[in-house]
Write a structure and sequence with these properties.
The chain is an alpha/beta fold. The chain has 11 helices and 11 strands. A hairpin with a 4-residue loop joins strand 10 (263-266) and strand 11. The mean pLDDT is 95. The chain is globular. The longest helix is centred in the C-terminal third of the chain and has 24 residues, at 340-363.
Amino acid sequence: MELYLQFGYGMKEHCKYLLSKWGKGTVILSPRDLDPDKNQLIRFSEEFIKCNGAVLIDPQLFNPRANHHTLTKHAYWPTDYVTGLWTGGSALNSLLEEIYQLNSEANSIGYIIPGLYCERVDDNWLAVQETIIDASSNIMNDKERLATICLSAESIRFEDQIENIINRTEEWDIDGYYIVPEHPGNQYLVEDPLWLANLLILCSGLKLQGKKVIVGYSNHQMLCLATTNIDAIASGTWLNVRSFSLSKFHDSEDDDPSRRAKWYYCPQAMSEYKIPFLDLAYRAKILDQMAPDRLFHSNTSDVLFAGAQPSTVNYSEGDSFRHYLTCLQYQCAHSKRSTFRETVDAQAIMLETAERFIKTFHRYGVRGQDRDFFNIIDVNRAAITMLEEVRGFVLEREWE
């Protein structure tokens, strides 16, 4: 399973650094964060390609009534939105032709076909999705096409709605899927095992169609998606590119990072910690247990473990982001194994390891607060158990 970079606010230099470090990679560009008046989307795409990267463009048309000032400046954005736009015809074709042109200028490796946010999976929403996909087949026929499936947190909790998507998509003329799942209650780490189990079941069902599957707006909790055999998850720097919310596409969303804390991701504990808690670990003489293994090749965090108290060293927000994504890229690359059973077993070992480390840290008062993975471990275990029950037999047979 690959890690794609979900582009967000202030991510250009981070993307260039990581693409150069990895020698490859894919960036999902965000029109919301790229000003068309400055030609940023095209310029940044060229820079990422020079760093051995590839690009996709997410049109972010989840809510056509969104009012984010940068997003709505793009040429494809509907200036006079009417519901009839999604019934087909010249207006929809014009919108898709603008997206086609943007992809051509950016030299993208494929098309992310726009899809509307789904409150509830019903015939009306499915009909709109199918209209957009059918129209795109006549315009975007020279590259791989990925259909956007953007689901509300509530819709993911219902088995019948998940099965309805899997059944209907069997007939879609598409090369793959770009899944955008809304987290319940704006949670970063999701505490609902049913939500996560249904997401795994959805992704596995779509992957069993023989299609490409990418799950956007992800964080390290979604490493469990390796058990579904999908191709990639996408993640980024700030939380609004690690979990999806419609509020991101309105002008009320605050992009100012000045009031946000620095975090350190401890990959073996699958938890993130504020620097003052690393000071506590330093005092308790367990800080070395929080350092990443050299296999992660994340030298941006070395300064935290060089012998001085962590809060006294120069560990920047940029270091924090690059460390997180470097570790996550390694974890993604090693999460999928040669069989379904081996992949499930690897997840179990990863969760057991995280649990053991977290318990040790907790004994000394070192906690990750709302990014502590301890209460999430059983959520992931339960979701994977449900996936085994529902899809395990066929995944074991069809695994590639």
